[in-house]
Amino acid sequence: MRVIVTGASSGIGRAVCEHLLAAGHQVVGVSRRGSPLASTTGTFHPWALDLADLPHLPARLEPLAAVHPALEALVCCAGAGRFGGLEQFNHAQIRQLVDLNFTGQAFLVRSLLPALKRAGHATLVFVGSEAGRRGRRRGAIYCATKFALRGFAEALREELASSGIRVCLVNPGMVRTPFYDGAGFAPRPGAEHALQPTEVAQVVTQVITARSGIVFDEVYLTPLTHAVDFTPSRPRPQEVDPCLDAKPGEAV
Ligand SMILES: NC(=O)c1ccc[n+]([C@@H]2O[C@H](COP(=O)([O-])OP(=O)(O)OC[C@H]3O[C@@H](n4cnc5c(N)ncnc54)[C@H](OP(=O)(O)O)[C@@H]3O)[C@@H](O)[C@H]2O)c1
pTM for this structure? Predict the structure, then answer.
């Protein structure tokens, strides 16, 4: 199976690549870093691309679509989280998060749809979030992007079924990944407080490899609790200070 996975350099996307490679599939891993991944079974091709650079994205997607004229699956994992009250975001930060978490995904899917249709049967997987089902304070922009992704997936599911493409939205709760670096909070240590990226990857792999007549519309998987610890803030460049008014141990 030929699969493109975005967010391949870290966290959930990287774990998805590793699972697919172990099963012998051909994987193209998209991220800004274009990090290589070793595999003794499947083949891995790193592909460097900034999905939030919307002005240049259509032109930069053309070679990706041209090199992979037929594609059995596309897994959209790239994304970021930024948290804080709305007034803590400047306009550029709002745009940046929406561009990466939603608009860049729409550009990517539009560009690769012909390749997915050519394969006859194909699977399109979005990694959403439980934040796409319920809005939470300090998450106005992040939740909005995940709600948008959910509507996008639902509409595409109807639009593409007659083309043999099934669309699945996988919505994890907290997963222990670098997503929380610089966020100012992280899931509390312990297996009950966070999923492992490989556990989400197992679900994604099952969705992609299920027989073609089965569609997993949406899958929610969450850790048993939602407890977080607040961490010394190490903001990434241009990142807001998150969670300024939250209390230790409080779910976010
Ligand atoms: N971790 C959680 O608790 C959690 C929970 C629910 C949903 N999610 C969702 O899961 C997805 C993956 O998150 P994660 O936890 O795996 O985070 P992560 O470890 O920080 O990985 C994010 C990935 O996205 C890529 N990326 C970021 N900005 C990009 C850009 N502008 N262009 C292209 N690629 C970009 C990163 O690669 P480069 O830096 O190399 O570009 C990296 O591979 C996100 O959509 C997130 O919203 C995460």
Answer: 0.93
